[in-house]
Amino acid sequence: MAQAEYVQEALAGLDPAVGGVDPALPLYATTFVVVDLETTGGAPDGGGITEIGAVKVRGGEQLGVLATLVNPGQPIPPFITVLTGITQAMLVPAPPIEQVLPSFLEFIDDAVLVAHNAPYDVGFLKAACAKHGYRWPNPRVLDTAALARRVLTRDEVPNRKLGTLAAYFRTATQPTHRALDDAKATVDVLHGLIGRLGGHRVDTVGDAIEFARAVTPTQRRKRHLAEGLPKVPGVYIFRAADDRPLYVGTSVDIATRVRSYFTAGEKRARISEMLAAAERVEAVECAHSLEAEVRELRLIAAHAPPYNRRSKYPERMVWLKLTDGPYPRLSIVRDLSPTDTAYLGPFTSRRAAELAAAGFHDAVPLRQCTHRLSLRTVTPACALAELGRCPAPCEHRITPEEYDDSAAAPFRTATASDPQPVVDALLTRIDALSREQRYEEAAVVRSRLAAVLRATVRMQRLASLTGIVELAAARPAARGGWELALVRHGRLAGAGVSPPGVHPRPTLNAIRATAETVSGGHGPVPAATAEESERILSWLERPETRLVEISSGWSSPAGGAGRFRDLLAKAESAASHQLSTERS
């Protein structure tokens, strides 16, 4: 059997991937398996275990005991024999670890694993499972040494060694460096520590595991803010003493998500600062995850909470549009007017818009000067005309009709339907630069191509949804019934959940009757932010989502930008690889 790779990791704590016991289970109802190992003293490499002792307890009552010597398949160092009293002769008839593991894994099933200095014992057990092909059940783990550091002060005990704690709690069994005796002593130490947890408002196994980890004083002082919150989808708002929103977030389980801010897993400096200023947490219950995500976006946009980084300023979006006049040019603007017919966006920053504009300038002969040109008066040409990069409409070297056909029309076509001519021109330029070994310049053009494709794909995708007056969709709810959404012009107008076993039509009719009135408008995002419409699109495009009703066809141009998604992915991947190479 090939040896599986083993890497010792930190204890899982409240990781959602951890199996076994519900973290909300009260401590008095939790089944604990207290384990101790004796080893040959080496690193956890899949062997080296000489003895296992484990005691199963619940509510102070002993439920079972497992104890066995283990043949490590290697000599025992003399100092280990002196320390534990275990000799080589005692281990010769003992079973190897691969024969002991099945019984041990069954013994710890559906229990919280407890050990003193747990990373050491758990490390040996995980390594043994990996080496011999057994699946480690990844139970929740409680470390009595770590818990003692949180519960007991230096005035009470000078250190957190098992012998010291056993003397402090006056355990019935004294630790002797034998596995079962040490496990029994750890049981009494565990019970003594649990008795001290009540004063810290720690009542569940999840709270105990997190309490044992290294949380900050602010997290411990403010953890009461997570009490009493609903375990439903929705939005949570951390508010300051003056009721200012400090931070807005969303979750399918508000209570669990907010509680995670007060655990050792939360290490972000800005969140620590936010928690220090927070005085209460407000919960806004939502019908389902989509409504929660949309409400989060709207609240962040409305209040711009100081500790949120994303989605705070949707009004800062910019557009790239073709100006009016006989010789139009590209212009970056904040807003679109009803008379604008050729535009691209929205872009999240002016830099992104400038990159896309540079891509169009590389592909088509659009003028780049900002002069207002006249059909009667000639204006001196700039250097770009001398370099052959501009057809010099300022000097009337090209008629308005010729300029429109060669320069303006490709932009209109690329944004409204097919960007093929622009893509071909940019790919040709990249190939030419690569053949001349001008790779850095080719990479610049590639980034411009990606910016053009990213913007055109995004805008056409948004326009396909926001042009629909009304759309109703349903998705199976986790607990039965259907999650329902009513979308008007790309804006979530209503949401709800139909009860299990009941036809969703009455619920949908009630949602429609109370839904927000949404009027259409100009552009690809007439009634909502681009981010909101994109969240709705992601929800609608999931395989399990069903379209119930739609006021008109939902489609994208057959020859549109969407067909270049693979090319966009390749360009972005190449740019990412180049960046990582430069940084290394």
UniProtKB/TrEMBL annotation:
Residues 231-309 form the GIY-YIG domain. GO terms for molecular function: exonuclease activity. Keywords: Exonuclease, Hydrolase, Nuclease. InterPro entries: DnaQ, GIY-YIG_endonuc, GIY-YIG_endonuc_sf, GIY-YIG_UvrC_Cho, Ribonucl_H, RNaseH-like_sf, RNaseH_sf, UvrABC_protein_C. It comes from the Bacteria. It holds the Pfam family RNase_T. NCBIfam families: dnaq (TIGR00573), PRK07883.1-2 (NF005904), PRK07883.1-3 (NF005905), PRK07883.1-5 (NF005907). PANTHER family: UVRABC SYSTEM PROTEIN C, UVRC/OXIDOREDUCTASE. This is DEDD exonuclease domain-containing protein.
